[in-house]
Input
Amino acid sequence: MTQKIEGFRLSPQQEHLWPLLRQGTPQPYRSRCTVLLDGGLDPAALREAVREAVDRHEILRTRFLALPGMAFPLQVVGAAEAAAPPLLPLDLGPEGEGVLLAGVRQAEIDLESRAPLSAVLVRLSPSRHLLELGLPALCADRTALASLVREISAG
Output
């Protein structure tokens, strides 16, 4: 039985990164940022802003699938409604933020089974939060993440 995948080829930059990602390095190639949110925050509104950004940008809901024998995977864009990452809320207080974010940064990237965007909201106090956004380097660089943060904050 033949399996069929419909998707898009990797860009030359992605083809360069793909073998590096597959080496199993302890610190995977990813783009991430942490944003300090001062003042009142409506987590539901933030969750909706993230969902809207994922709806608008295909790369935020793209998985990378390869059949046996393929040197490079195809980019497979998922449906918008199923791809928004859960905004994981954590209430740790100021002393727990470093440990948590170190754990988030070391988490394994699963490029085949889920959309690439990760989002964690850490509650430091009622009026201070950290938002950690992460994407594999295949999907974003620092400039793209800065643009995503601006878009989410405007939403």
About this structure: The beta strands are 30-38, 62-65, 74-77, 87-91, 118-125, 128-136. The chain is about 35% helix and 25% strand. The mean pLDDT is 82.
